[in-house]
Amino acid sequence: MKRIVFKDASIVVTMNENMGEIKNCDVVVEGNEIVKVGKDLKEEGEIIDARGKILLPGFVNTHHHFYQILNRNMPAVQDAPLFKWLLYLYEVWRNLDEEWVRVSTKIAISELLLSGCTTALDHYYVFPKGKENLIDFEIEEAKNLRIRFHITRGGMSRGKSKGGLPPDDLVQEEEEILKDYERLVNKYHDSGKFSMLRIVPAPCSPFSVTEELLKETLLFARKHKLQSHTHLAETLDEEEYCKEKLGKKPAEWLEEIGFLGEDIILAHCIYLDDEDIKRLGKYKTGVSHCPSSNLRLGSGIAPIKKLHEAGCNISIGVDGSASNDTSNLWLEGRMALLCSRVKDKLTAREVLYFLTKGGAKVLGRDDIGEISPGKAADIILIDTNRIEFAGSGYDPVAGILFSGGNFRVDLNMINGKILVKDGKLLIYEEEKLIEEARKVERKILEKI
Question: Model's pTM, two decimal places?
Answer without folding.
Answer: 0.98
